[in-house]
Amino acid sequence: MREIITAVFLGVGTLAMLLAGLGMVRLPDLFLRLQATAKAATVGVGGLLCAAAVDMGSLSVVTHVMLTVLFLFAITPVATLLIARAAFHIGVPLWEKTRENDLAEKYSSKPPHSRAGPLLDGK
């Protein structure tokens, strides 16, 4: 039974990492790619760590995995939000089909001018 649960956690973690990798390749701008990597860091790594905890089964490993997953779930969304706000402030352009820009409404009425380099512009 332990092997089946471990395999399920490994499958979930691997699938989340795979989908995040595809998102990094397919999504058009930095902000959408950040969303994909945040999912990979939380669900993917969490699934892989839970698989390790179930497979090893000792209280010490389970405690370390639970604290690590809790830390990931607390820190990753905050870090992603801070990176996205920093990118917005330096002028990384949004995808042309983006319909809502909540940060522009909050910080200024005009869109930011682009100071981002060609790597972040996607050109």
UniProtKB/TrEMBL annotation:
The protein's matches in Pfam families, at most eight in alphabetical order, are given as: PhaG_MnhG_YufB
Recorded hits in InterPro entries, A to Z, give: PhaG_MnhG_YufB
Instruction: Give the start-end ranges of region Disordered.
Output: 104-123
Annotated membrane-spanning segments are 6-25, 37-54, 66-88
Q: Which UniProt keywords apply?
A: Membrane, Transmembrane, Transmembrane helix
Q: Which NCBIfam families does this entry report, sorted A to Z?
A: CPA3_mnhG_phaG (TIGR01300)
Q: What is this protein called?
A: Monovalent cation/H(+) antiporter subunit G
Q: Which organism is it from?
A: Stigmatella ashevillensis
